[in-house]
Amino acid sequence: MKSTTLKSAFLAITLLGIIWSSNAQKNYELNKKQTFSVLGTSTLHDWEMETSTATGTANITITNSKLEAINGITINLKSESIKSGKGAMDKIAYKTLNTNKFKTIKYVLKTAEKVNETTWELIGTFSIAGVSKEFKTQVQTTISNGSVTIQGSNKITFDEFGMTPPTALFGTIKTGKELILKFNINFN
User: Fold this and answer.
1) CB burial string 9-27: b at 16+ within 10 A, e below
2) Has residue 135 got a pLDDT over 50?
3) What is the pLDDT of residue 33?
């Protein structure tokens, strides 16, 4: 009788362990394989600024190597880490972002809804230049070797974040009003 009870207890613990390991909600850290880009237009040429330095966490549930839930995402990047490769353009961008006062650009997930196995619709808040706005973002996800990759983009305007589209050369070069925020991020 004692042996049967012990076997039953061992079997129950083993089953719980299997269920727990196959349905694991975990915290993940943003790794170094990431890119954040801002794309825009001007009367002179299209332009892009990017950074690969950000910090962030995600709380994700994976079951049998499939993404089942995105419970939380928080990402922070230094405003002045975004570079174009052109010093003068960077200075204009930092002035527009008011980086003396607002050192960080932030994203915080509010909700995540699964569309299909690899597509999710996220609703979250972007905080840029001291203004916070909620946006819906459709993203593509992949899971590989314990890493979760999320790719997507958002169209925003300078006006939505209280910024004036920058100009150069006494107003002869004007920036377009729309921007695209593009990201390819990996969590381990």
Assistant:
1) eeeeeeeeeeeeeeeeeee
2) yes
3) 84
Q: Which residues of 75-94 are buried (b: 16+ CB within 10 A; e: fewer)?
A: bbbebbebbeeeeebbebbe
DSSP 12-64: HHHHHHHHHHHEEEEEEEB-S--EEEEEE-BSS--EEEEE---EEEEEEEEET
Q: What is the pTM of this model?
A: 0.84
Q: Residue 139: which of 64, 75, 84 has the closest Cα?
A: 75
Cα-flanking dihedrals φ and ψ of residue 31, to 5°?
Answer: -100, 180
Counted residue by residue, the chain has a size of 188
